[in-house]
Amino acid sequence: MYAQVVTFEESPDQVQAGIDHVLDDVIPALETSPGLTGLWLVDREHGKRLSILVWESEAHASAAMAKVQEHVARSKHQRPTPARVERFEIYARVPGANRPAESVVRSVIAAIEAGQFAQARSLLHDDFTFSGPVPQPIGPDAWIGVHRALYAAMPDLRFNASGFQATGSGVQFGVALTMTHTGTLDLAPLGVRAFAPTGKAVKLPPESATVIVRDGRLASWANVTPPDGGLVGIARQVGASISGH
Fold first, then answer.
1. Which CATH number does 2-89 carry?
2. pLDDT (tens digit, 9 = 90+) per residue, 48-100?
3. Looking at the domain that runs over 101-238, which CATH code has it been given?
4. Cα separation of 202 and 178, whole Å?
């Protein structure tokens, strides 16, 4: 996760032209982009504008900016030239209490897919529970630990989340994990012996997820997983085994 701050220093006419460009070209391109929180600020008196974009990952930034380029290519506006573009590391954040549940879930997924596990953990309550393809519910650190181990063995791990529907204090959606077994898979605490890389592609069947969000962080995540899904499915597809299966 990082922040990009774009500064424009302009005359009054240029300020308004820049605002029009943002409202007509940039916002429509970015308003549905995952992995992004954006703010556009203006000081009209001093002719200064700021675009502050907080990206969950480089991949999210690249995909979103490609959409912006498509809009700009057919725009009636002249694209303004920034005075400077700066990049900042984000070392702390306070999740917004009123942040939409889908946005929080997407941020957690994006952080895990990028290997940013401290960031993902910061978006989970300490009493967070995960239930579904596990013998009994597990807490936040164990859940992050599972994904840390999967990422170490399969760094192209993708949730492929889709079909988000708000449910009051939470959200329901589908996931269909994909990954490639290029590293050692070691989930010993869950009964999976360390398994050397096979290069095999893993594609799990669709699962239904229900997540409850409280005060801007995940309170629970429950999956409805088919018998050939979850860790059992991953182990079988790479030729490993889990105790009892």
1. 3.30.70.100
2. 999 999 998 888 899 899 999 998 888 888 889 999 999 999 887 766 555 78
3. 3.10.450.50
4. 5
